[in-house]
Design goal:
The complex is a heterodimer of chains A (217) and B (115). With 217 residues, chain A is mainly beta. Chain A has 3 helices and 11 strands. In chain A, a hairpin with a 4-residue loop joins strand 9 and strand 10. The longest helix of chain A is centred in the first third of the chain and has 10 residues. Chain B is mainly beta and 115 residues long. The radius of gyration of chain B is 16 Å and the shape is globular. The chains are: A mainly beta (217), B mainly beta (115). Chains A and B meet through strand 1 and strand 2 of A and helix 1 of B.
Chain lengths: 217, 115
């Protein structure tokens, strides 16, 4: 059973199937995922695995963090993430954290950090329509009115306004795995994945969609 | 990036005949109808090529029943069975979009390459 893994977004390309249909794919490299800790229902209240990815120099880590790796008996890693298992499921004795835990055709969720866009206006950030560009209009890309009158006498919550955009945690659900390449430690998922090339991603089995149409339990 | 190059080179064809913009080509495409497969031909002038490696495409233009028809083919698609060069053209442009504005006989007029 697939648990999930940490990886790096390498980039995108296309894959032709036997019928000549081209599929856009994102290449995710996930070599040498290390198991750092297993969390169990009895001891921690929930079951999960703590996974490390991407080799790190010992000198770049603090002693407490280094101690975690020493205790688990694994090489120091740059990224540590916890992958939680569905409720009621326990961590198997043998945890497979290689790419071969997944198979082609399976659906996964990919979590990454989106590209930072800086301070952006409402047209880009919230897809507002903007105002007329010409005919004497001097209000081109502004947000327009943000509220009503004395009722409610305040601005509604979640009103779209300019501000920082991007550089946030984004989950893309239900991406199909097109290929698993254990010899290269790489998986190919259909479609785009958040973040820049070289950024870290978490790949986990899809929460909502599986091959036979039933949610993963 | 190495791995992307590897994935792409695995899918790339090695037996593609070299052809250039201006050439008249016959493109043999595999058409799947139900469970049967047959070859369909599309012949015309290559009016442009774009992309590199696996992402290479080429555009073929022909006049069909008096109407200009263009098709864009992915060079490395498995649906393309074969490309035949019928006639080599002699052109000075990378894109022959000017053929789109031409009418009648001139519409397919590309000088033949003299060897």
């Amino acid at each position: 059973m697939a648990i999930g893994l940490l990886g790096k977004k390498i980039g995108m390309t296309r894959v032709y199937d036997a019928n000549g249909k081209a599929t856009p794919v994102t290449v995710i490299a996930a070599e040498a995922n290390a198991l750092i800790q297993v969390k169990t229902e009895e001891k921690h209240g929930y079951s999960a695995v703590q996974v490390g990815y991407d080799a790190q120099k010992e000198s770049r880590l603090t002693k407490p963090v280094l101690g975690q790796f020493k205790k688990a008996g694994v090489e120091p890693k740059k990224l540590i993430r916890e992958i939680r298992l569905p409720d009621g499921q326990t961590v198997p004795a043998e945890v497979d954290l290689s790419v071969s835990q997944f198979e082609a055709g399976q659906f996964v969720d990919v979590i990454g950090r989106s590209k930072g866009k800086g301070f952006q206006g409402v047209m880009k950030r919230h897809h507002f329509a903007g105002q007329p560009a010409a005919h004497g209009s001097k209000m081109h890309r502004r947000n327009g009115a943000i509220g009503n009158r004395s009722t409610p006498g305040r601005v509604w919550k979640n009103m779209g306004m300019p501000g920082h955009m991007g550089d946030e945690r984004v989950t893309v659900q239900n991406l199909r795995i097109v290929q698993v390449r254990p010899e290269d430690n790489v998986i190919l998922v259909c479609g785009a994945v958040p973040g820049a090339n070289g950024s870290y991603v978490v790949v986990r089995p899809a929460k909502k969609k599986t091959v036979n149409g039933q949610a993963a339990k | 990036m190495e791995i992307i190059r590897k994935i792409e080179s695995e899918q790339m064809k090695t037996d593609i005949v070299p052809f250039k913009v201006g050439d008249t080509v016959k493109v043999h495409t595999r058409v799947i109808e139900g469970d049967k497969e047959r070859i369909q031909l599309f012949s015309g002038i290559v009016i442009g090529r774009r992309g590199t490696g696996l992402n290479s495409f080429f555009t073929v233009r022909r006049i069909s029943y008096g109407e200009g028809v263009e098709r864009v083919f992915p060079l490395h698609s498995p649906r393309i069975a074969k490309i035949e060069v019928e006639r080599q053209g002699d052109v000075r442009r990378a894109k022959l979009n000017y053929l789109r504005d031409r009418k009648g006989k001139q519409a397919m007029a590309v000088k033949e390459k003299s060897i």
